[in-house]
Amino acid sequence: MNQLIVSCPQCGTEVIWNEAATWRPFCSDRCRLIDLGAWLDESHRIPDRAPASLPEPETEAPQ
Fold first, then answer.
1. Contact present, 4 and 16 (Cβ < 8 Å)
2. Among 2, 6, 41, 59, which has the highest number of CB atoms less than 10 A from its own CB?
3. Of the options 2.60.40.1120, 3.40.50.300, 3.40.80.10, 3.30.50.10, the CATH number for the domain spanning 5-40
4. What is the pLDDT along the chain (63 residues), one digit of tens a residue?
């Protein structure tokens, strides 16, 4: 039987992808938490390709 082996996204350690790999794709809870922290402090981001829409400036009626 072939086993799928992936690299931990945080440290690169090889992880066998199966039911026993509790933290997959990470090798440990520590690597999982480091990655989560990077998302929370916005070190990791998914870029927004949509142009930013700016609100229309409000104009006052002449008096």
1. yes
2. 6
3. 3.30.50.10
4. 689 999 999 999 999 999 999 999 999 999 999 999 999 998 888 887 877 777 777 777 666
Segment (H or E) for 16: strand 14-16
This model's pTM is above 0.90: no
For 51, list phi and psi in degrees, rounded to 5.
-65, 145
Rounded CA separation 19/53 (Å): 45
| Side-chain half-sphere CA neighbours of 62 within 13 A | 0
As beta bridge partners, residue 40 has none
Domain locations along the chain: 5-40
